[in-house]
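re the bet — no i am not wrong, look at it urself. input seq straight from the record:
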Amino acid sequence: MTTQGPGLHTQVLDTVGLEIAAGEHRPGQVLRTDELAQRFDVSRTVVREVVRVLESMHLVESRRRVGVTVRPAEAWNVYDPRVIRWRLAGADRPRQLRSLTVLRSAIEPVAAGLAARNATPEQCAALTECALGMVATSRGQQLERYLEHDIAFHRIVLDASGNEMFARLGDVVAEILAGRTHHHVMFEDPDPAAVTLHVRVAEAVREGDAETAERLTKEIAVGALHELDVLAP
């Protein structure tokens, strides 16, 4: 029997989750826990833990005497960061990226406007630092380092909005940005105009200019949609 542990649990979870998200297990299909245990050479305890996590995401439901049944995509918790990651890894990536980017375009401009009203001096300083980090890593194909600053920037905007619902979307936005980078739906170097817009958003938030912060963040979202037209039509 293969050594059990958290890493193995994650491996099984990611494999089965990816398969469900990719449609390899159709809605209504029953997954047998004993077959999964045999397939991955793990204990039934590991499989049960994996099933519990998948149930929490609404990807499957478990019923006695029936087994573990795959649920239709309409039932999934599409805001779960892991579900987003799995869906972005599949063939439906362009549509999923577009759907998520439209979500960002609806939420983040409003959050930026609120941040201009509510951000603390510490948050303003951190936002400026992230924007400058994006500038510093926007050339020379440093996409992974750029991504770190980009994710941190958008998390701060959502947190600084003062709206706890927006703040909870930080992980969602992080998965969107990471998915664009890791699945090569980005140019080798970020769009200079987009980088400049992030700097200007930080300035608008620091100056308390809600209207400008919202407008510039909307421009960032529109630019991201245009980028998808080119790279993931």
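see?? The beta strands are 30-31, 60-63, 67-70. told u. also The chain has a mean pLDDT of 94. so pay up
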